[in-house]
Amino acid sequence: MLLADYHVHSDFSSDSTAPAQQMVEQAVKLGLEKLCITDHMDYDYPQESGYSFVFDPDKYMDKLEELKRLYHKKIELKIGIELGLQPCLAARNADLTRQYPFDFIIGSSHLVDRMDPYTAGYWENRTVFDGIHRYFESVIENCKAYQGFHIYGHLDYIIRYVPKEKVGQKTSPTSKYDYSYLDYSDLLDEVLRTIISYGKGIEINTAGLKYGLGYPHPKPEILKRYRELGGELITIGSDAHKPEHLCYDFHLIPELLKSLGYKYYATFAEGKPSFEKL
Questions:
Q1: Mean pLDDT, rounded, of the chain
Q2: Which of 35, 51, 98, 199 lies at 20 to 30 Å from 275 by C-alpha?
Q3: pLDDT for 136-150, tens place per residue?
């Protein structure tokens, strides 16, 4: 049984309406030993989206410290953040993470060339292959520009948002686009080697299962290859934005990881990993 969820959002993220205390209460109800709240900080997110993805870090730290004190006998609450990575934001992200003592920092790609693959604009004049290829290229660029994160989040996030009209009969209104590691193997190997070379890890993000992909982010082929290349540092998160999505399908993850050769997953405190047996 997994006893920690290390990717969780609250109403400090503009795409969640759940107060942080509700998320903590749900974690206690589920019997978790550790919870890390990791709200979005995506500087430079397009204003026309209607989302800001920027919060007041002083208020955030104050609120989570208050909850740590309130629930210290029931759960070990950690203060994390999910940073939107782009090379142009490296200095600003570095300033933020120097100023505040986050236990855990997820680095994620939500924007590529200042566009979210969630939007139609990203896919204009791009084939599916080109759109996905550019996304993975940007991960390498982000890692080279900024190394202040601990884990790269939902490594194949883009797969959620491949437009159905781009793939014709390969998908239906009730299914999601699928892809193969082999289609991008050289580039994905470079992505994974780059992450490993900087001493960073990747996460298993079960939102892929919630979104109907049939697998977590990233898909098992990539998790296997990461292990083959020497990667061992891995965290597990639900990417929950609502209390009911906390620990989403966590019961599937231990056996998946064991089948791929993993024995441990990581939790973080004060920026340092501890390894938990699967």
A1: 95
A2: 98
A3: 999 999 999 999 999
